[in-house]
Design brief:
Order of helices and strands: HHHHHEEHHH
Pfam family, one: DUF4806
Distance between the termini: 54 Å
Number of domains: 1
Protein name: DUF4806 domain-containing protein
Strand content: under 5%
Number of strands: 2
Organism: Popillia japonica
Largest sheet: 2 strands, parallel
Shape: globular
Number of helices: 8
InterPro entries: DUF4806 (IPR032071)
């Protein structure tokens, strides 16, 4: 496998990350039909580091999409949320995690993505705020 991290270079300049709006999401997902765009985004996301596939997945998702965007999705469309696996962006995230953990199964990476999306409400102090709100009532 090529060294995607070195390849990333200045590719982040062509992406407005993290994705904050529905329009940005749809536009970037559509652009991923171009193999060069897919490769550039993959290199950008694969440059995210971390210990363990779930932590890398978390870092990748935080780089890719805002908390508010992540809250709209689940990996497989459960709990009345949008199905992230139905978009090309899922494939880029999957491949970026696979770059770091080539022996990980499809099931494990999908589970990691699912867990990260399910916990998006806890990002940026969300869990602490909810706990404080409960303690005050």
């Amino acid at each position: 496998m090529p060294n995607l991290v070195e390849y990333a270079g200045d590719s982040t300049k062509q992406f407005l990350l993290p994705i904050k709006t529905e329009q940005e999401f749809i536009e970037l997902d559509g652009r991923l039909s171009d193999e060069n765009v897919f490769s550039d985004l993959l290199a950008t996301l694969a440059s995210v580091g971390g210990n363990g596939s779930k932590k890398i997945c978390l870092g990748i998702m935080k780089k890719l999409m805002s908390k508010d965007m992540c809250l709209q999705f689940s990996a497989l469309g459960k709990k009345n949320k949008r199905n992230f696996s139905g978009y090309k962006l899922f494939n880029v995230v999957f491949e970026a995690v696979k770059y770091h953990y080539p022996d990980s199964s499809e099931y494990q990476i999908t589970k990691d993505i699912s867990s990260v999306l399910a916990s998006a409400g806890d990002w940026d102090g969300g869990r602490k705020k909810r706990q404080n709100d409960v303690a005050e009532h």
